[in-house]
């Protein structure tokens, strides 16, 4: 019996699980187990919608896995023994593995600025987003400070401003919103934020979060009745604690086939992995996370057949950004994520963004029956060759 344990049922872990299910369904000698903190699939791409008070679908992982032969364990992974090849869940259950797929994702970095852990809301789970939604609904008036001017911050600020016109929204961060986009997309994004009444405070270094305000370097303060923290990414310390080679952000360093360089029986995928392509180490996205999961599944099956896994190649192709429910902008990109001249805006962009956001769940369902349907993604051409 070859025991495969997948840690995390997010975008990458689910892709690995359903693809393995599809590829091993006729094999009696393979057992696949998925461990996740919740039964509910966290649609991270919709957390800003939840925070703004919208209802989103309640997608259940065990329901999707029903009939696939994949075992689901609900629990919190508390330790990995990479020598004994075991995983500890909720400090009590022990799972043995022959191959481990590490897909625990990342969360907002709430540790590097004092006060964030105590006073700020995050988008680490649907529950966290719901807590912010409750706070915003109860406010009636006041200011929401969205800290972090990356795309998560932009989407959150726009969504909250649109759904809560009674609240003032200020978006605070080091870089100007849409900094990595081309001039056309960036100008569109800025105009949309202005139309929605979002005040942008770029070039700001946040040094402290207090119950009623955010303090910036230089002494300036921004009054805030609610603070959302979207800045930075932190990963689980479990991989480093288990002795796996990790980078300076705690992500597992992988070889070209997505195996840990120190522990080749461990595959690392999604946001928790430091995956190098010719253009640099990939940054975490859903568009890249799902292919890493599928590639890990294909590689594990190849290895079980005595073949060598192939190198993983991926090229980015788009950056879709919602600007509330009625507006969006899509920046199409080169494989290294630099902007192309091609941009979608307005209603066509809203449709595009929603199509992309809604796609993963039905894709997982399809992969349990037709696993090769998940193997189509842009390989990056000359950028990754
Ligand atoms: C608000 C928001 C908007 C975003 N928008 C986009 C977008 O438009 N496009 C895009 O490409 N990307 C977007 N992203 C980024 C994208 O969501 C991530 O890159 C993607 O979720 C990474 O997938 P993953 O499987 O690695 O991790 P995740 O999806 O985070 O999954 C990790 C899973 O592991 C579980 N887990 C973690 N630790 C433990 C533990 N110790 N024990 C048990 N379970 C655990 C979690 O509960 C979760 O289910 C967005 C992110 C946010 C927060």
Automatic annotation (TrEMBL):
<keyword id="KW-0274">FAD</keyword>
<dbReference type="InterPro" id="IPR036188">
    <property type="entry name" value="FAD/NAD-bd_sf"/>
</dbReference>
<keyword id="KW-0560">Oxidoreductase</keyword>
<dbReference type="GO" id="GO:0019646">
    <property type="term" value="P:aerobic electron transport chain"/>
</dbReference>
<dbReference type="Pfam" id="PF07992">
    <property type="entry name" value="Pyr_redox_2"/>
</dbReference>
<dbReference type="InterPro" id="IPR023753">
    <property type="entry name" value="FAD/NAD-binding_dom"/>
</dbReference>
<dbReference type="GO" id="GO:0003955">
    <property type="term" value="F:NAD(P)H dehydrogenase (quinone) activity"/>
</dbReference>
<comment type="similarity">
    <text>Belongs to the NADH dehydrogenase family.</text>
</comment>
<protein>
    <submittedName>
        <fullName>NADH dehydrogenase, FAD-containing subunit</fullName>
    </submittedName>
</protein>
<feature type="domain" description="FAD/NAD(P)-binding">
    <location>
        <begin position="3"/>
        <end position="283"/>
    </location>
</feature>
<keyword id="KW-0285">Flavoprotein</keyword>
<dbReference type="InterPro" id="IPR051169">
    <property type="entry name" value="NADH-Q_oxidoreductase"/>
</dbReference>
